[in-house]
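Q: I'm building a small set of examples for a reading group on sequence design. Run inverse folding on the following structure and report the sequence directly after it, with nothing in between.
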C-alpha cells in the first residue's frame, strides 16, 4: 500500500518558494542591467540541496546576471512552458521546461533525455540564436536532494506527518509537530532521475499508474534504515520526488534526527526530521467554557509551560471551545487559559506521555467586584456533582446556598447559585461576597453516589474547584486521595481563606449545613 501518494497543498506551500519564486540565496551577485558586452556565466544546481550535480527530470535552479529586462515570471500552466520572461534554456542542446524566470534566476526541469557527464548550459533571450549566458552542469543518473524549510538544503526537511501536518520542531513552523516512531512520513525531494513509466518533460507526475523511481531508494533516519513504502514522482507536480517511509519504531525523541536518502549509490546531503518516541508523544486536548453559562469560549489561548523550564506551547480554542496540541511527556506543565473579557485561569498538569491526554474543562469568569468570590466546579465524566455554600445569617443561624436554595435570602443577596450543571461535566458556579466576620464554608457532594459511603467517584471524575476573587484566580483545589461522598473544600473565616480539602460521607444534601 502507498499511503497518501499525492502531495498535499500544505506541503506545496513549503516548496513553492524554492521552485517557483526567487529565493534570497544566489550563487552569483546581481549587477545593474546594462548593455551586454560579454556572455554571462550560468551556474546550475539542484533546487533542493544546491548541490552541483543534477539528474534527468529533476528540478534545478540556474543563477546568472542580467538575463532579461522583463519582470520575473512564474509558469501558470502544466505542461510547463519553455519560455518565460523572454528567456529559454537548453541543457545539452535540449530545451528545458521552466518553472520561473527572472534577470538573475531561472528555475527549470532538467530534460529527461540529457546524458550523464559534464553537459552544456545555454540561456537565450527573445528568440536570439546567440546565448546570453553559458555554463556547464554535471548530470548523473540520480542526484538526490531533499527540500528543506530553510530553502538551503540543510536542517529540517520538507516532510509531512502521517496526519498530513507539517513535520518540524513544534516552534519551527506554525502547526508543525514531530512524528512518532512507527508511523509513516512523506518526504519531498528531487533528483530521482528517470522513472517507470517515463514522464514527458514539463508534465506532472501521473496519479495512475504512478511514476516510480528506477532502482532501490534507501532512507536512513537517525542512523537506522527505514522501510520505504513509495518512491516516485508526486502526482500532479513536475519533477517533484515523493518518498513515503516508516519511521523506525526504536528511534528516541530527537527533534533534529538525521535524515538521508540514497538512490543508485548516490547519496544526498544530510537533512533533519523531527522524531518523537511513540511512548512520549502525547496529544493533549480539552475545552474552555463560560463559568456562568457553560457556553464554549472560542479564541481562548491555552498555553503549556513545561516545568521547571522549556518553551511555551500555545493552542487556540475553536468555535466549540475545543483545543488540541502535541507535547512530549512525561512532563509537568503550567497550563493557563486566557480570553478577552475573562480572568485568566491556571493550573499544573502532569502528562504521562504517549497516546492521548484529555484534560478536564477549564471554566473562565469575567472579572468580579472587589472582595467578591466566584467558585467554579468542573469535572470530566457524567456523574452529578453539586456545589454547597453555608454561611452566617444576621439572626445567628446559617444559610445554605445550593441548587435547592439558590440565594441567602438577603436583600440584595450576597450569595447566589449561578449555574446548576445538568450535563455531567460542569461547570457548576456559585458567587458570594463574605462579610468581614463569620465563617463561610464551601463543599462538593457526589450526588450520584451519595448513598455509597467511601465512594471514589469524586477522584474518578477528575473534579477541580477554581476560586476567583476580584480579577484573579486565587486557588485551584483537587480532592485528596481516598473515598467519600462529601468533599470539604475551603473555609473563609473572618476574611481569611483556608483550604480544608477533606473527604467524608454525607448522604443527605440538606444536612450539609450542619455537617460542614
Amino acid at each position: 500500500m502507498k499511503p497518501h501518494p499525492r502531495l498535499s497543498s500544505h506541503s506545496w506551500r513549503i516548496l513553492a518558494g524554492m521552485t517557483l519564486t526567487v529565493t534570497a540565496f544566489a550563487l552569483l551577485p546581481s549587477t545593474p542591467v546594462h548593455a551586454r558586452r560579454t556572455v554571462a556565466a550560468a551556474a546550475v544546481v539542484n533546487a533542493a540541496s544546491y548541490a552541483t550535480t543534477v539528474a534527468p527530470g529533476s528540478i534545478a535552479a540556474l543563477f546568472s546576471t542580467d538575463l532579461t529586462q522583463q519582470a520575473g515570471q512564474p509558469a501558470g500552466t502544466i505542461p510547463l512552458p519553455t519560455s518565460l520572461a523572454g528567456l529559454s534554456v537548453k541543457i545539452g542542446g535540449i530545451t528545458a521546461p521552466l518553472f520561473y524566470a527572472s534577470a538573475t534566476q531561472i528555475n527549470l526541469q532538467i530534460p529527461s533525455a540529457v546524458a550523464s557527464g559534464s553537459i552544456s548550459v545555454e540561456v537565450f533571450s527573445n528568440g536570439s540564436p546567440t546565448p546570453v549566458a553559458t555554463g556547464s552542469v554535471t548530470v548523473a543518473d540520480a542526484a538526490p536532494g531533499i527540500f528543506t524549510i530553510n530553502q538551503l538544503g540543510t536542517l529540517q526537511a520538507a516532510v509531512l506527518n502521517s496526519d498530513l501536518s507539517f513535520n518540524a520542531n513544534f516552534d519551527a513552523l506554525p502547526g508543525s509537530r514531530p512524528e512518532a516512531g512507527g508511523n509513516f512520513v512523506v518526504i519531498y525531494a528531487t533528483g530521482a532521475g528517470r522513472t517507470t513509466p517515463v514522464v514527458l518533460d514539463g508534465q506532472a507526475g501521473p496519479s495512475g499508474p504512478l511514476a516510480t523511481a528506477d532502482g532501490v531508494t534507501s532512507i536512513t533516519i537517525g542512523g537506522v534504515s527505514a522501510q520505504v513504502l513509495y518512491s516516485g514522482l508526486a502526482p500532479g507536480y513536475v519533477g517533484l520526488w515523493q518518498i513515503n517511509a516508516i519511521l523506525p519504531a526504536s528511534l528516541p525523541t530527537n527533534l533534529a534526527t538525521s535524515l538521508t536518502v540514497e538512490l543508485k549509490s548516490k547519496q544526498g546531503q544530510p537533512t533533519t526530521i523531527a522524531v518523537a518516541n511513540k511512548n512520549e508523544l502525547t496529544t493533549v486536548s480539552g475545552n474552555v467554557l463560560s463559568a456562568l453559562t457553560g457556553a464554549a469560549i472560542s479564541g481562548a489561548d491555552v498555553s503549556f509551560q513545561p516545568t521547571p523550564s522549556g518553551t511555551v506551547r500555545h493552542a487556540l480554542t475553536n468555535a466549540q471551545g475545543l483545543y488540541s496540541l502535541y507535547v512530549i511527556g512525561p512532563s509537568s506543565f503550567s497550563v493557563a487559559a486566557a480570553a478577552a473579557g475573562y480572568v485568566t485561569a491556571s493550573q499544573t498538569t502532569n502528562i504521562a506521555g504517549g497516546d492521548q491526554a484529555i484534560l478536564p474543562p477549564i471554566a473562565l469568569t469575567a472579572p468580579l467586584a472587589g472582595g467578591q468570590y466566584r467558585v467554579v466546579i468542573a469535572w470530566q465524566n457524567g456523574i452529578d456533582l453539586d456545589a454547597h455554600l453555608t454561611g452566617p445569617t444576621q439572626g445567628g443561624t446559617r444559610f445554605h446556598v445550593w441548587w435547592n436554595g439558590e440565594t441567602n435570602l438577603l436583600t440584595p443577596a450576597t450569595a447566589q447559585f449561578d449555574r446548576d450543571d445538568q450535563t455531567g461535566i460542569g461547570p457548576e458556579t456559585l458567587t458570594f461576597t463574605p462579610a468581614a466576620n463569620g465563617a463561610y464554608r464551601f463543599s462538593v457532594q457526589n450526588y450520584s453516589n451519595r448513598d455509597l459511603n467511601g465512594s471514589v467517584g469524586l477522584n474518578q471524575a477528575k473534579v477541580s474547584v477554581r476560586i476567583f476573587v476580584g480579577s484573579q484566580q486565587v486557588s485551584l483545589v483537587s480532592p485528596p486521595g481516598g473515598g467519600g461522598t462529601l468533599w470539604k473544600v475551603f473555609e473563609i473565616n473572618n476574611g481569611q481563606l483556608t483550604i480544608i480539602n477533606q473527604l467524608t460521607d454525607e448522604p443527605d444534601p440538606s444536612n450539609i449545613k450542619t455537617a460542614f
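The chain has four domains: 9-139, 148-198+207-276, 281-358, 367-515.
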